TrEMBL record:
It comes from the Bacteria. It is a multi-pass membrane protein. Keywords: Cell membrane, Membrane, Transmembrane, Transmembrane helix. One of its GO terms (cellular component) is plasma membrane. This is Type II secretion system F family protein. PANTHER family: INTEGRAL MEMBRANE PROTEIN-RELATED, PILUS ASSEMBLE PROTEIN. The chain crosses the membrane at residues 16-40, 97-117, 123-145, 276-296. Coiled coil: none annotated.
């Protein structure tokens, strides 16, 4: 009877602690949601007041919080759609479900951990596993999107010299830059969908706002050194009316040379990086194998 009472008391205390943890999690989530809503309202109000030149530039508490608020707590639909778009996920109609699904997965996973380990492990272990699962649910999706964004930027930068060659060929035949971009956007659908989408997006924006703002937006989406050179070259050609054919060919050759130099630099660093596993897994075991017999003889008193 005493054992049953103690076990029931332990179970009741664990249940109460779990409910408290869930309540704290829900409270923190609601606080962050309200904070983000307030910041979004202030941002919209700031844009409106800036148009009327009545916006005060002095920082206050909300400005500082907005500056240091991590992206994992942001539920702004526009920023989430930009994350998906930058990661190569162009159809982002379900982007508004990203944050709710992430926090719902954290809550459901914590409940499953409690149900599976409620009787067989201590409360400290459960809390530790719940915290680990919470960090995984919140940070891993953003890390995956960031890695996809970097991979896409690297891919587009690597394909840029081929685009410059094709663009130079189109310009050399007498086509304008706008018509060349429109033609390449259609023809490259079967080769590289990401590059074709980038060209089509730039061409569509050029038809609406002009070529120079469209090029600036292109560099904002793909902020690499190669893309900056491409954008600056086209803008210089538009400003000064210089021949674009030779400039595009020269730029393509320069980008290839720079990427080749960066590859040679990585190959040069490879020897220094390979020395670390060589020391850890080969030299240290060899030293142990050589010194072990003598040490064992000294320990046993045999010389």
């Amino acid at each position: 009877m005493v054992i049953d009472e103690r076990s029931s008391f332990i179970m009741s205390s664990q249940t109460i602690l779990f409910i408290e943890l869930v309540s704290v999690f829900i409270g923190i989530s609601l606080f962050l949601w309200l904070l983000v809503q307030v910041l979004l309202q202030r941002k919209l109000l700031g844009k409106y007041l800036a148009k009327h030149k009545e916006f005060n530039k002095d920082d206050n508490v909300f400005d500082k919080v907005e500056r240091f608020l991590p992206s994992v707590a942001s539920n702004d639909a526009d920023s989430i759609e930009r994350k998906f778009y930058s990661a190569g996920l162009y159809e982002s109609k379900y982007a508004h479900l990203y944050m709710p699904v992430k926090y719902l997965s954290a809550a459901v996973g914590s409940g499953i951990i409690y149900l599976l380990l409620g009787k067989d492990s201590s409360m400290t272990t459960q809390v530790a596993l719940m915290c680990i699962w919470l960090v995984v649910c919140i940070s891993i999706p953003d890390a995956i999107l960031s890695s996809r964004k970097k991979a896409l930027e690297e891919k587009l930068s690597g394909q840029l010299p081929y685009l410059l060659d094709l663009l130079a060929m189109c310009v050399h035949t007498g086509m304008t830059i706008e018509s060349s971009l429109s033609y390449l956007a259609k023809e490259m659908q079967g080769f590289d969908k990401d590059l074709a989408h980038m060209i089509a997006r730039t061409n569509d924006r050029a038809n609406i706002v002009g070529l120079e703002p469209a090029l600036d937006e292109l560099y904002v989406r793909v902020p690499t050194n190669e893309m900056r050179s491409f954008v600056m070259t086209l803008k210089q050609s538009l400003h000064y009316g210089s021949s674009i054919y030779e400039i595009l060919n020269t730029l393509a050759a320069d980008i290839r040379s720079v990427r080749l130099l960066s590859l040679e630099e990585k190959v040069g660093k490879l020897a220094a990086k390979m020395s670390v596993p060589l020391i850890l897994f080969i030299m240290i075991p060899v030293v142990i194998l050589i010194a072990a017999p003598g040490v064992m003889r000294m320990m046993t008193g045999v010389y």
